[in-house]
Design a protein that fits this description.
Elements (H helix, E strand, L loop, with lengths): L1 H7 L3 H4 L3 H10 L3 H10 L3 H14 L2 H9 L3 H9 L7 H13 L3 H13 L3 H11 L4 H13 L3 H13 L3 H7 L12 H4 L13 E7 L2 H16 L8 E3 L3 E2 L7 E2 L9 E2 L5 H4 L6 E6 L5 E3 L2 E5 L4 H11 L10 H7 L9 E3 L8 H6 L8 E3 L8 E4 L17 H11 L8 H11 L3 H16 L2
Parallel strand pairs: 1-2, 1-3, 1-6, 6-8
Antiparallel strand pairs: 4-5, 7-8, 9-11, 10-11
Length: 449
């Protein structure tokens, strides 16, 4: 038998006369794959397809690998689509592992996806780390793993490797990085700054800021989801490319100033944002409860797109429709101009005249909101259904909410940009120079057409 195989692989010119013999042996022999490969070498391309079909049916790792290297579309598809071993089990893993250990990049990537699907992150990471040495997309994925585990410098180095391998994604991410400022701007320098105004069609212009690769990638995903969200496409909200600060450039806490929620020292962002065109800032930090303070939104790595949209509505003055704490209710429920709530005394109906006018004669439905459950006042909302302001994972935004949202964005006096946060932060530190700069930015915002 081994003599026959050696003869088959001896050379194309000697084999071509024996194609009929090879085809016959492939149909009758106990070792048909050897003969099919020999027929392919003799010039019979149909034999390569047959070889791939038989190898896939038998999960024959050896010949699957050879068929893929020979350019078989079936074998290539096997490796590229066998990411979760749908029903193939151990035989498929054996075939992939055989090829992966011999440097087959598609097999390495397929094993990564397979073990991810099997909730085996350590095994998945093993193959991803190997694939990252040659595959640019895998290098970006593995860089994220490194960032999640706290190895930020290694993550950046691998991202640079991905760029060298040809990853445009890695190049785009690296271009977001901002080097730390070496000095603080002085009063004379502020006079020379000419910050760009927001685009005329942007009532709000969001600037995402992150200090780890993991958070930068999170920001990218949130922005892409926002662009695809048909519910919000009519709102004049623009989003800038994220800014990636050094890991040590932002001080945050999950109990900022004892408030029990995420917060950061926003004055640390001043140097990186002075020449940027923006109105509101979204800070992506490691851990803490999401919230909005004036013109800055704080999100942690666990917050998804639904949380972002909920917090984004707070920028326009929308109030939560779940029960507020007693302290917050004491402020909100004694008088609020929130577009999604009306307040009244218990057992009294609110004045819904403004809401009714927004509907242009269409029927208005109101219902009680739980916002003021910890207060004697009763809150009402213009919707009988549960909305996105009560639970993050409820996608429903009533049309009247969207209309009110757009109306709020058209009135600058009702908006609080992040300039206020910077001004208040520097004023509290006694830094009149930088505080004055951000106060002037706010005045420019109000006066701009």
């Amino acid at each position: 038998m081994f003599c026959v195989i050696a003869w088959i692989l001896a050379g194309r010119s000697d084999i071509i006369r024996y194609l009929p013999f090879l085809s016959s042996q492939a149909n009758t022999s106990d070792f048909p794959l050897h003969y099919l490969y020999g027929a392919y070498q003799a010039g019979d391309n149909h034999s390569l397809a047959l070889l791939s079909q038989r190898a896939i049916a038998e999960n024959n790792a050896y010949w699957l690998h050879f068929a893929k290297l020979a350019g078989s579309p079936q074998a290539q598809q096997y490796f590229s689509h066998l990411q979760t071993s749908n029903g193939r089990g151990k035989a498929s893993r054996k075939a992939l592992t055989y090829a992966a250990k011999r440097g087959d990049i598609d097999a390495q990537i397929a094993l990564y996806h397979h073990w991810i699907a099997k909730s085996e992150p350590q095994k998945a990471q093993y193959w991803l780390k190997i694939a990252a040495q040659r595959d640019p997309a895998s290098a970006v994925f593995y860089a994220k793993w490194l960032s999640i585990s706290g190895n930020e410098y290694q993550a950046i180095a691998l991202l640079e490797k991905a760029e060298h391998l040809g990853s445009t994604h890695a190049s785009r991410l690296l271009n977001m990085r901002v080097e730390p400022q070496t000095k603080e701007l002085r009063e004379a320098e502020f006079a020379t700054l000419k910050p760009q105004r927001t685009a005329t069609h942007c009532a709000q212009q969001l600037q995402f800021v992150a200090s780890t690769l993991q958070s930068v990638l999170q920001g990218e995903e949130l922005i892409e989801q926002f662009k695809r969200d048909h519910r919000l496409q009519g709102l004049p909200i623009c989003v800038n490319t994220p800014i990636w600060l050094a890991a040590s450039a932002l001080t945050c806490s999950d109990n900022w100033q004892g408030a029990g929620r995420l917060g950061c020292d926003v004055t640390q962002l001043s140097q990186s944002l002075t020449r940027q065109r923006f109105t509101h800032v979204v800070v992506l930090a490691p851990v803490g409860k999401a919230n909005v303070h004036n013109g800055v939104m704080f999100l942690d790595t666990e917050d998804d797109y639904n949380v972002f949209v909920h917090e984004l509505a707070h920028f326009a003055g929308f109030v939560d429709e779940y029960p507020l704490s007693s302290g917050l209710a004491a402020t909100i429920c004694t008088g609020s101009n929130a577009p999604n709530l009306l307040l009244s005394n218990a057992n009294e109906q609110p004045d819904v005249h403004d809401w009714q006018n927004q509907l242009n004669g269409n029927k208005l439905t109101i219902s009680q909101s739980r916002t003021c459950d910890n207060h004697q006042a009763q809150a009402y909302k213009p919707s009988a259904k549960m909305t996105f302001m009560e639970f993050y994972d409820v996608p429903y935004i009533p049309p009247i909410y969207l209309q009110a949202w757009a109306d709020r964005l058209s009135k600058k006096s009702l908006l609080t940009p992040a300039y206020i946060n910077f001004y208040q932060g520097f004023d509290a530190d006694g830094n009149a120079e930088q505080g004055g700069y951000w106060r002037s930015r706010y005045q420019q915002f109000l006066q701009a057409d």
